[in-house]
Amino acid sequence: MAAAALVTENFKFVSLFFKSKDVMIFNGLIALGTVASQTMYNVFAFSCPCSPGRNLRYGLAAIGVPALVFFLLGVMMNRATWDLVSECRIRRCRRLASVSAFAVVGNVVGRAAIAPVTWAVISLLQGEAYTCAFSEFVGPYTLDVFPPTLEGPDGGVRLMAKLPCRGADPGELLAFREEVKRRLKYESQLLGWLLVAGMALLVFLMLCAKRCCSPFGYQQEEYWSSFHASERDVFQRTAAAHASLCAAENVKAFFGFAELDGEEKRLVEEHAGAVEAVQSEDWNRVTGVYLYRENGGLPLYSRLHKWARYHVDNNMEGMKTEMDS
């Protein structure tokens, strides 16, 4: 029974990471921005060196390096990354099961992979970088009526490397230039479409897993998504106002007065003497990875929600047991 309860809990936790129409819109905007960036790069910056060895390095770098940068930026910009870091720093991941950790990492990697995969797909579909990288590996013997006198001691590698650059190849190769580019573009676009198909299949399987593992019905899941977004928005705005009030009180204590704008004066008048610094242990309790819980059938949708229930019930023992360890 205990093992079954643990599996059920972890499946609930996994399902919470595949949600929210806002996330889908944001991911779509990231993909569109990546497409625009890749197109501008191809138009204004891409320049194949047309030299053996350098072609491969330059072509692969043009596909891989921006994708890696986008991936790292995506990891850094994902709140789940820092939730996981905080969980391991504050609680040493003692309450984080392997399935839950896998779900968090999967969420981070999945979100961060949108931009790099889009970059790689567009690069492959356009074919410029792939053609530059692999032109030198096209064997002259695979071309019809290729002049043997042009192959040279290097087997024609140097000549093949020059084919992507217009005007850099000898006149005798003009007849083969379009054939080589067409062949390489075919290979590049085939890889691009295979990558698209693979990603589509992966997304489909993830959506199926989400529907099968979700602890919520459709309506409750929509509510949970709205709750989470609203809580984060209100928390951030309130935290900013709280920090402003604390700063105003400190400045006033130092100078004897504080120069405030209209909104700050209104906040000071409404909350004079009511603002207190939040204890570090409470900050830690509402920070980190959240494992979905219910209390007597009442869903607890976030760490802050859980903290608030314990605080309202004045259950400090339960708070320390459930949220500090």
From TrEMBL:
Key words of the record: Ion channel, Ion transport, Membrane, Transmembrane, Transmembrane helix, Transport
Membrane protein topology class: Multi-pass membrane protein
GO cellular component, one term: plasma membrane
InterPro entries the UniProt entry points to: CALHM
Pfam families reported in the protein's UniProt record: Ca_hom_mod
GO biological process: ATP export
MF GO annotations: monoatomic cation channel activity
UniProt-annotated location(s): Membrane
Domain of life, source organism: Eukaryota
UniProt main location, coarse: membrane
Record family assignment: Belongs to the CALHM family.
Protein's UniProt name: Calcium homeostasis modulator 2
Species of origin: Muraenolepis orangiensis
